[in-house]
Design a protein that fits this description.
The protein has 111 residues and is mainly alpha-helical. The protein has a single domain, classed as Alpha-Beta Barrel (TIM Barrel), CATH 3.20.20. It has helices at residues 10-23, 36-43, 70-76, 85-88, 93-105; strands at residues 28-30, 48-51, 80-81. The mean pLDDT is 88.
């Protein structure tokens, strides 16, 4: 990755790119659940974080390796979560969606 100026740890690169995005005037970034806290701490509350790879505890990870539950993603500071196949690839997507929404109702979001 050195050809594009990146090297070192994933977290270091993610933070560098998130800071650059904010400096360039972007509203936010897409981030794995693993870097949400660091991005939030380094870019502030007004910087949006969209998090894919969200998997409820009852769902399979599929090809996602860096996942979190909806609760974990929100509690870490994600503004928006993407829950794809756990809803779209099941026999009854409505029931799956309702299960995710029930989990989200229980979350206490810090003010």
């Amino acid at each position: 990755m050195k050809k594009v100026g990146l090297g070192g740890s994933i977290e270091k690169n993610v933070l560098s790119l998130a800071r650059l995005a904010k400096k360039c005037g972007l509203d936010g970034v897409v981030s794995s659940p693993n870097e949400i806290k660091s991005i939030r701490q380094n870019t502030g509350e007004d910087f949006l974080i969209v998090t894919p790879g969200v998997r409820p505890g009852w769902a399979v990870a599929n090809d996602q390796k860096r996942t979190a539950t909806p609760r974990e993603a929100i509690e870490r500071g994600a503004d928006y979560i993407v829950v794809g196949r756990p809803i779209t690839a099941v026999e009854n997507p409505v029931v799956a969606c309702e299960r995710v929404l029930e989990e989200l109702k229980e979350i206490k979001v810090p003010e």
